[in-house]
Amino acid sequence: MKQITTILLIFFTLNCFCQSHSFYTKPDTLSIASKIFGTIRKITVSIPNDYDKLKQPKNCIVYVDGDDDEISGTILQATNNLYLYDDIPQSILVGIFHENRDQELQEKNKLYDFIANEVLPKIIEKYSVKKEITIVGHSFGAYFATFCFLKNNKLFNNCIAISPSYWPNKNDIYTIAEQELKNQEKLTGNFYLAIGDKRWDDVSLRDGVFKFKKIIESNKNSFSFQFNDLIGFNHNSTPTVGFGLGLNFCFDEWEWESVLEDQNNRIKSFPNFWRHYELKGDALRHLKRTTESIDTYKITIEKLNKDKDISSTDRKISLKRIKVKMRR
Q: What's a Pfam family in this record (predicted)?
């Protein structure tokens, strides 16, 4: 029995390994003669294997710690899996290498200028990408990603900050956030924040993260904000789940647009199946198209009441669920 279990474990491990990053190219290392740093700097770029399938501009996801195999492997796998199941759109992954990681991420201005003025122009020149960039970071990298989102929100329109260290430079990130949030219409896009609760590294950062969260939530924001308390995860393991959750949140609107398009096509083929109308109503509700959503739920109820193949019990349960959605 133990031998069979071992064989199955090896099979599944090898199968998962073979599938790793199967929908993305291996990261390609590029060199940039940086005037800002005065050295040759490296970045990595990974693109979907079916990059040419869609002609519209792609999303660009920039992450720091690109020379950290664990960080780059985790975000590449998360992006690959989410893209496989149509949870996120086609995206180009750009990893930033460091020469002096902690100094660059804490000092932040030079690295910001390098990414904004030297890396992204090179990416835009070579690939077709959207103007709004998603910036991703962990620990000091999350501190830096937060800074980028606040400093130039038109460019860095999505931010994923996992287990951020918000204490550098005398806690300057709180002051920066309060200043930028005074202009309520300035910041747009999506901000995802997460922290673990295990071991000292993340435990020691929690107060700072909750202070930043309070600043965000005490202001009326024109951007979407989500916080996840990753109970049971420590500082080094939070990216394992945090990157995927963050990407899923940042591209949630895109996914619901995709669901809406899919259900419209299904309704054309099956115009009397009420479940497709319910899913269409869900998509419209998440996209904040409230009036259209309610109208679609009304059609759902009409179709459901005409369904002769559903039991009376299931019909009552479904009607109750749909009416609850209409009141939200």
A: Esterase
Residues 211 and 281 in one domain: no
For helices 252-269 and 274-286, give the axis angle rounded to 10 degrees: 160
Contact 43, 119 (CB under 8 A): yes
Q: Please identify which residue in the block is written with the tokens 């835009």.
A: 124
First to last CA, the chain: 52
Rama region for 108: left / alpha / beta (φ>0; ψ in -120 to 50; rest): left
| Residue 326 neighbours by CB under 8 Å, 6+ apart | 294, 297, 298
* Per-residue tens of pLDDT for the chain, all 328 residues: 434 433 333 333 334 434 455 899 989 999 999 999 999 999 999 999 999 888 889 999 999 999 999 999 999 999 999 999 889 999 999 999 999 999 999 999 999 999 999 999 999 999 999 999 999 999 999 999 999 999 999 999 999 999 999 999 999 999 999 999 887 668 999 999 999 999 999 999 999 999 999 999 998 888 999 999 999 999 999 999 999 999 999 999 888 888 898 899 999 999 999 999 999 999 899 888 999 999 999 999 999 999 999 999 999 999 999 999 998 7
Question: Residue 299 belongs to what domain range?
Answer: 256-327
Q: Do residue 134 and residue 208 come from a single domain? A: yes
Of the three residues 221, 250, 279, the one that is the final residue of a domain is 250
100 dihedral zone (left: phi>0; alpha: psi -120 to 50; beta): beta
Domain CATH number, residue 319 = 1.25.40
Verify that 71 and 204 share a domain, yes or no.
Answer: yes
Query: In 3-state terms, what secondary structure has residue 222?
Result: coil
Q: Which strands sit side by side in the sheet containing 91-96, from one edge to the other?
A: 28-34, 39-46, 91-96, 58-63, 129-138, 156-162, 190-198, 224-234
Query: Do 319 and 220 belong to one domain?
Result: no
Q: Residue 193 domain-assigned?
A: yes
Sign for the pseudo-dihedral over CA of 145, 147, 149, 155: negative
